[in-house]
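Per reviewer request, we include the raw input and output of the structure prediction for the construct analysed in the revised manuscript.
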Amino acid sequence: MKRRQFLKGAALGAGATTIAAPAIAQSGRTMTIVSTWPRDFPGLGISAQRFATRVNEISNGAITTEYYAAGERVGAFDSFDEVSSGNSNAYIGADYYWTGKHPGFAYYTSVPFGMTTQEWNAWIKFGGGLELWNELSGEFGLVKLPVGSTGTQAGGWFNKEIESPDDFKGLKMRIPGLGGQVITKMGGSTVSLPGSQIYENLVSGAIEATEWVGPYNDYFMKFYEAAKYYYTGGMHEPGGGLALGINASWWGELSAWERHVITAAAYEEHAAAHDEAMANNGEYLRKLIDEQGIEVRSFNDDIWDAFADAATEVFEEVRDHSPLAKKIDDQFQAKLREIGSSIASLEGTFVNQRNRILGIG
């Protein structure tokens, strides 16, 4: 099947959540899914498992999923190649893990000073983002759909206070994607570790700091046993999404009804994962403070300015990578300003005034 045919299928919306299974679907199909998250992992792992279950439920058993958490079939960071090669049908993970293959993948998780989840959703669904995501992914034999989001993430866990940009010099930190490149520009030493390996490296001192997600997810990681300072509101992941990466050849073999089922389940879980994190972050931030005695900090303006200077260099390097990388950055930056401006004028004005009056924040 020609690439444009199966990419067209990837753009199917989530509107058809009530779908009658055609008679031909009753013969059944198996969808093998690998993940970058550990099994039963609070937040991210449970979200991926919930998606696999929903495909079964929405299809009334016509599509049976076989879900493998990180390490059960392949390692977390082997998921991309596993699906690109056709050994498995799909993966669930964060596409910024694959910036070594192409820096454009970072934009489909999150980038420094980038889009919040609300802005990213608008770009992906109605601003041409999904089509461009699939143009990039098609070069690797993949089709993409959003399948999760965590909202704006915390700045991370540190075993010392970060009071100036100089405090990042020589700092050993787990932080992937373009955010990691920003820290490198500032003199840090960064690594990209799967979630299952972060705690042991932080406790042993192999790394001195790490970002992960936010209070709800972070609470269960027990980073507070090795790092006392928790910085909120990071520059590296203001929002965005997680990826369902589907082998393009397999996707092309599916009926339109089967593609609708998978798309509906993916969009449903994309919303559910974000909403679950938003519902729980406040409670678990309080638990971290009250039960574990962590100290919440915010980066000062000098640090934010240094982040911005380093990010400018990183984006210039991304644009120099290839015409497609430049095309992605051009569209992303234009939509960020267009969408972000209206949100700032409407929701931003309201939220700032509401919080001032109610004493929130």
